[in-house]
Structure formats: structure tokens, C-alpha cells
TrEMBL record:
Lineage of source species: Bacteria, Pseudomonadati, Bacteroidota, Cytophagia, Cytophagales
Keywords: Membrane, Transmembrane, Transmembrane helix
Transmembrane segments: 45-66
Name used for this protein in its record: DUF3311 domain-containing protein
Organism domain of life: Bacteria
Species for this entry: Hymenobacter saemangeumensis
Amino acid sequence: MLPPTEQAEQRRGQRLLFLAILFFVLLNFPLLASADVDGRLGGVPVLYLYVLALWVLVVALTGYLVRKSA
């Protein structure tokens, strides 16, 4: 059995890996194509907003996971 600190590190690594895979899927063709419409929100294309929102979300969740575990 692993010591608690190693278990926490292993869980953090698994969560970060899951997060990376999740955002890879969200930025892959079928979902990315669904945001590629002619519409605009506030003068900004929807596709740009989708990618920006996902990027902000991945940065925020990664920061949260790293700080929570540290």
C-alpha cells in the first residue's frame, strides 16, 4: 500500500490526465464543428468564443486541481 502523500499525487495525476483527455475531446472535430456557425455574440464569432471559453476553463480547472492537492 502506498503512503497517503503518494496516493494523493497519483490521484492528482489521474485527474489532470482526465482533464487533458476531456479537453482534447471538446476541441476535436465534431464538437468544434458544432460551434462553427455564422453567428456572432458581441461581434465575436461563436467559434472563437467557444475556444476561448474552453481555454479559460482548462486553465482554471488545472489551477484548482493543482492548488487543491498541494
